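ok so I'm stuck.
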Amino acid sequence: MYYVSTRDHSLQYTPAQAIAQGLSRDGGLFLPVSIPKLPEGALKEMTGMTYQQRAQYIMSLYLEDFTAEELGQFAEKAYGPDKFDTPAVAPLKKVDDGTYCLELWHGPTCAFKDMALQMLPYLLTASLKKNQEEKTVCILVATSGDTGKAALEGFKDVDHTKIMVFYPKDGVSDIQQLQMATQEGANVGVSAVVGNFDDAQTGVKTLFSDETLREELAQRGYFLSSANSINWGRVLPQIVYYISAYCDLLAQGAVTEGEAVNFCVPTGNFGNILSAFYAKEMGLPIGRLLCASNSNNVLTDFIATGKYDRNRPFYNTVSPSMDILISSNLERLLYLLSGGDDKLVAGYMKELSDTGCYQVSGEMLEKIQSVFVGGFSSEEETEATIGKMMDEHKYLIDTHTAVAFHVLEQYRKDTGDQTKTAVASTASPFKFCDAVLDALHVTEKATGTALLDQLADVSGMPAPQPLATLKDKKVRFTSWTEKEQMRTVVTDFLK
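replied:
not stuck anymore, here's the structure
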């Protein structure tokens, strides 16, 4: 199976080439030329598999230049007990008779990004070998909070690899910032960027398209790649947990084979929910995909009107990983729903760059609305949902997961749709102690890492070990840069 760019499908790449390169040189995103279908009986077969075995099975359908043995080894290492604190890896927790929570935060950084970023280093290093690449790869990452730490942790001290992470100054939680600032590893770098996530993301994309920079780094023995969800090696491992969740529902007798379920996904860059769409296209029985946004509700409006418009106020919210107005992975969906019309997609992306908006056709909007439902949660609604989940279900959730639960509640009220639904829980509540304590009506709060102990006392839940040990770690990275100077940060890092 070959891979192409969303903006020029005339060139074909192997899976290993697409993963190694990360982003196409024309600015487009790589995706497979076709979506493989799940073989008949595959879901029933996978109910008896471990998560690692399911990952091997599903990824092998997309990565034809990787052997089953390779992928099996990668899965065992990426999702092993030394990385994840539960054998289920991505456990499915029952909330009530019709609602389940897919917990994606049991990895080393306590966020769903671990599900992909523990796998990506194995895929990337193997890809470099298959491509006979001798230069050292430098991973550039823009993060709204969780991707940065997950990427740093995944790539620390990996041979022939360096990684530089940019995050928005004052745009992540204190715990998220501390996680990145204390990162260990000889090959890692971290810098804040003055501005928001979109500024950091646009800056990284600009560096990828800078031919002069590419030549300069090549002379030094480096080339650039990405660990953001613009890299297909990020999207693919995320497909696995949607299929795995359905298999768990089957195994529990919660659904019958072929019975449709809905998924509600808190969404910023559209990568997580795009993975669910791929699972649906592979044959997973999915009814509706609920795209849950916070006050930065550009996707909600897009799904309702077909107009994508980032020309709006930007809000720093209590769910910072979703504080995004340019949802990069939407480009992949546009390509798929347009039947692979690369010129159309390239035109939309140019309009977005030039004017900040674009309008899709009525036909495409109809296709989008046949699968996706958009909704958003205000700050007050998010906070209230955290309290409600604790009061009614004794279940502690983070701010992003609360956005999703609120959107699900509103969707059910508006439509009467009682289809069994799994909510993607994307982070441990302990990553956002301040906001969660506010939601639990705690008025006198601790500071720094003492917030972790306070939330543990209030909730009766222990803080995850990777977060509980932050107080013992040394702060290494405190620098910040203007977005115009990100190039200099990278070149200095790679001296």
